[in-house]
Design a protein that fits this description.
The protein is mainly beta. It has one domain. It contains 1 helix and 12 strands. A 5-stranded antiparallel β-sheet has the order 1-10-7-2-3, with no helix packed on it. The protein has a 3-stranded antiparallel β-sheet with strand order 4-5-12, with no helix packed on it. A two-stranded antiparallel ribbon has the order 6-11. It is globular, with a radius of gyration of 15 Å. The termini are far apart.
């Protein structure tokens, strides 16, 4: 089981314009009805598939605490905290990171979709603390061209 990361079409534009608000990123869990579509421009395209509040989950997800961008002559990275849902009882397939603000004409845009099991299978959790661990090298990484 591996995680597959998919990027929405507008994400690079938002980052390149420097309009990404690192302090307003949230992560939600969605069920297997959601099919990634790079053209989804607002979290409203994803919300019908978000888990309902209950069983240790709260709608609108968890705020990611970002350390903001860091970089040097070789490249850049953006890191954020790992997140945990305590005593979670749920069935889900993806985690979606989105901005809870408007950018460049995009209202609450989704940025990244994580297929949490690329077989793909549902993740089934019963009364367990479930964590999404962010790569210590950064949520977003890049090199200068």
């Amino acid at each position: 089981m591996a995680v597959q990361v998919e990027i929405y079409a507008h994400t690079a534009k938002i980052i390149a314009e420097g309009s990404l608000n690192w302090d307003n990123m949230r992560v939600i869990l969605v069920n297997n009805g959601y099919v990634f579509d790079a053209s989804h421009a607002t979290i409203a395209d994803v919300n019908p598939y978000e888990l309902s509040t209950g069983g240790g989950y709260t709608s609108n997800g968890i705020l990611l605490v970002s350390e903001g961008p860091t970089g040097d002559a070789g490249g850049f990275a953006v890191d954020c905290n790992d997140v945990m849902w305590a005593s979670l009882t749920a069935t889900f397939r993806r985690a979606v990171i989105y901005q809870d603000v408007t950018h460049s004409g995009y209202t609450r845009p989704p940025l990244f979709s994580y297929l949490l099991d690329d077989t793909p299978n549902d993740i089934i959790i019963t009364d367990t603390d479930y964590s999404l661990i962010v790569d210590p090298g950064g949520l977003i990484k890049g090199v200068w061209a």
